[in-house]
């Protein structure tokens, strides 16, 4: 569907705060960030984020946790794009 008068934008490696900085017992902990590979905007609204992975080894437990925290905070699903070296194609799946 084509929507006129709406600007569409794609950004690469845009960083999002997933956990604000905080202090406990005088010790300061820095903010935590998640940086997806691609972000798609419809006007000013973020509509889709894509994280490209080459295989299971690059989708670590830490990466999965950052993606889940992003989805909780921004209410946007993360799409995993996996490259299949045998076919030369990407497949998409939602985390």
From TrEMBL:
InterPro entries (UniProt xref): DUF1064
Q: Which domain of life is it from?
A: Bacteria
Q: What Pfam family is a match for this entry? A: DUF1064
The protein's name in its UniProt record: DUF1064 domain-containing protein
Organism, by scientific name, is: Lacticaseibacillus paracasei subsp. paracasei Lpp225
């Amino acid at each position: 569907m084509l929507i006129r008068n709406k600007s569409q934008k794609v950004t690469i490696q845009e960083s999002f705060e997933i956990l604000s900085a905080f202090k406990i017992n005088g010790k300061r902990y820095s903010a935590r960030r998640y940086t997806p590979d691609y972000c798609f905007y419809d006007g000013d609204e973020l509509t889709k984020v894509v994280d490209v992975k080459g295989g299971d080894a690059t989708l670590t437990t830490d990466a999965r946790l950052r993606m889940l925290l992003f989805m909780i905070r921004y209410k946007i699903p993360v799409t995993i794009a996996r490259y299949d070296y045998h076919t030369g194609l990407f497949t998409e799946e939602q985390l």
